[in-house]
Amino acid sequence: MPTINVKKADLERLVNMPLEDEFIEEKFPMMGVEVEGIFEEDGEKIIQFSINPNRPDYLSAEGLARGFRGIIGIETGLKKYDIESSDVKLYVENVETRPYIAMALVKGVIVDDYVLESIINLQEKLHWVMGRDRKKVAIGIHDVDKVKPPFYYKEVSGDEIKFVPLNAEEEMTPKEILEKHEKGIKYAHLIKDDKFPIILDSEGNVLSMPPIINGELTRVTTETRNLLIDVTGTDKYAVEKTLNIIVTALAERKYGKIHAVEVIKDNQSTIYPDLKEDVLETTPDYINKVLGTNLTPGAIINYLRRCRLDAQFVDNKIKVFIPAYRVDVFGEIDIAEEVAIAYGYNKFSGEYPIIGTIGELNQLEKKCDFIREIMVGFGFYEVINLMLSNDEVLFKKMRIEDNNYIEVLKPASIEHRIVRKSILPLLMETLRINKHKELPQKIFEIGDCVVIDENVETKSRVVKKIAGVIVDNETNFNEIKSYVEGLLRELKIEYELDNFEHPSFIKGRCAKIIKDGKIIGYFGEIHPEVITNFELEFPVVGFELEIE
């Protein structure tokens, strides 16, 4: 889950009341927000919050304060934001790579150090949560007084234009930014076919080159008072919701006023932001059935208002109004969750379910538990890794060339986009992270791997495996062989051993395990190049075995 650091003084200013540390630790979890810690930094008290990804509106001090005011009853109900008109227009040409854009103004914001830090942090967190590391959504926040509307959104070639990117001193072409600028190098993979999206003002000044970098010209400082927000992306819903989250957060600041921008594309005009609330319906019977409560319609409405929603009871139905910055309320069950949050999870008492059968561990899980006991008896420590990783760890560092794997279509991050088919690489990564610990290190993991199988309906098959590694200055083939044979003996598996050439192991020091003519595992001494790739300095031996 994403974490954010909020300065306590700023939070108190937004909530408009002093907050004791104990009060913060007690009340914020009622909102579904974890308080990870409260500490001092540079003479200021900092609160670290852990935010659920389904609540991106909580990724700023402004959003947290708005929710907190509701949950403790200071200010309840749906917050209404006035949108004032402006003569600012944005003309959109045919931008194929990132076709959607939304834009708005927030004027009169007093940007002090607290506000500036909050803006930067919110932008970066939304890039990750809503934007999938800018692939889906990219955000630009500008000092609008430094440019002249109307604005234009179009695509240019890599050397068609020059501007000074943020945190740079010299002009660069878009292509040069991808080659020289830190952000350009990091996000160059998002630019396709030499088509560079650009946002310009009426005098040809560059505001932004989404999704890579803003222009230095419109940098936001503590002298800024009027902000222009642009959001571009590949998903219209995500673009519009991201804009709503940002402008409503800024409008929580003193004197901040939202102003509309007219976006014109293909002779069609759209006014942003659109802060019209969504409407859902439920019934008191449904809420009480789901929660096991006996709440009156009035009580349910009161709890919804404390979650900064609004509601009306008409014809035995509760009509619920959801603010435009919320992205997590889609149906009745979500409404029930909001009621439960305000009601208080600590008030619910547990009940034993009525069941027709008594469950027990699956035979495979019993076998895994038995294996754990054996490995712990051998002196190994168990670790647990994610099933998702990346090609760098799973293949390149292991000296493996493999294109036959399953990749996540819309990963949360580029570091976790490939479903593992082997556990051994992740154990090597674990050793790398813990290389500062004393030797020897003996670790193992039991877990699921997914392999492609064209003979089944899902075209993939889950395989339960165990893998183990040892790093020590004197470990060798004989040591790992003794542990593997000891494990196979305890499992009463009849097997054969034979030489095995595996790119991750030293040639001649790797063996395969054969049962009934099928290779079920292998073990040996890890190749020096693999050891170096994982930044280790001592010999490593390892094994991997299919449990089923």
From TrEMBL:
Reactions listed under catalytic activity: tRNA(Phe) + L-phenylalanine + ATP = L-phenylalanyl-tRNA(Phe) + AMP + diphosphate + H(+)
PROSITE patterns, per the entry: B5
SUPFAM superfamilies: Class II aaRS and biotin synthetases, PheT/TilS domain, Putative DNA-binding domain
Location relative to the cell: Cytoplasm
Keyword Transit peptide listed: no
E.C. designation(s): 6.1.1.20
GO MF annotation list: ATP binding; magnesium ion binding; phenylalanine-tRNA ligase activity; RNA binding
Top-rank lineage group of the source organism: Archaea
GO cellular component: phenylalanine-tRNA ligase complex
B5 domain sequence ranges: 275-350
Similarity remark: Belongs to the phenylalanyl-tRNA synthetase beta subunit family. Type 2 subfamily.
Self-association state and partner proteins as the record states: Tetramer of two alpha and two beta subunits.
Name this protein carries in UniProt: Phenylalanine--tRNA ligase beta subunit
Species of the source: Methanocaldococcus bathoardescens
Gene: pheT
